[in-house]
Amino acid sequence: MISSGTVADSTAIKRQFAKSSVITAASISAKQTRVVRIASANTSASKAAVLDVKKYRTISAKITVSTRMEAYRTDRDIRAEMTDYLPRYYGDFPVVSAMIQAEASEATRLHALVEALVFEFYPETATDIGITRFEAECGIVTDRTKSLEARRSEVIKRRRGIGTVTLPKFTGIVNEFYDCTVEEKPNEFRVATTIWSKRGVPENIAEMEREVNAVLPAHLEHEFVPTWLTWGEIEDYGLTGEEAEQYTGDELSKRFLFPYLGGRLS
Q: Do you know which InterPro entries this protein is assigned to (predicted)?
């Protein structure tokens, strides 16, 4: 506070203090103003020392930090192997030990990446990167909603069908789904596949037909023949009427109630 007759001979600096939220501006009263230095001489009480007022606002924030850690391993102890190449007295030098550790870590990472790359060369072990390339080669539309195991299986089936399709090879393909028997009908240019280990029409019949059409020669027609539980089978195996009445007719005909052995009931 400057009273009448106060004389100063230096620059006036005014500090102002105020509290404010982020939204509302602060009002500064006279009690919050303090003159530190005054430049001009003969400053009277009526003369106001006013300078630019700077407002400072405080805000709060939540900072989220994420990091990524990579872990690699190989069957080799690369650090020990590198140490064996050096004279023993180098073990007393911390700088040398730190250099070996850094280089061994990077070498371990390199070997692990090379091993992982080899896995991409085979559909049985390929990850999403490798299996996508196999799907493109086989003409399969990539569907990442399927599991990786399902995508691998589809590629393996498609690759297995490339080349001459013999009866054993075709039987192996359809048996990837269910236990089936295949009957060739040369005079009709037709192949019939009877499904034994699944009653009724399978839910994945469209997928089965797609796999078969991809490998079967174009001049042959193919038919999947479903099987149903017959009343004769029920009688042969001694199923009582009370037991049969637990199911509707449709449910009973689709249930496989007895052990399956190679295309026949037993």
A: Phage_Mu_Gp48 (IPR018755)
Note the pLDDT tens digit of each residue in 67-96: 777 777 777 888 888 888 888 888 888 998
State the Cα angle at 132 between 131 and 134, rounded to 5°. 60
Q: For residues 104 and 177, give the distance between their C-alpha atoms in angstroms, rounded to a whole number.
A: 47
Instruction: Answer whether residue 68 is part of any domain.
Output: no
By residue range, what is the domain housing residue 115?
78-119
Residue-by-residue DSSP string for 42-98:
S--TT----------------------------SS-HHHHHHHTS-GGGGG-HHHHH
53 in the same domain as 163: no
Is residue 135 in a domain?
no
CA-CA-CA-CA dihedral for 48, 54, 60, 66, to nearest 10: -160
Distance CA 162, CA 39 (A): 96
The one-letter amino acid code at 63 reads I
Backbone angles phi, psi at 245, to 5 degrees: -70, -10
Number of domains comprising the chain? 3
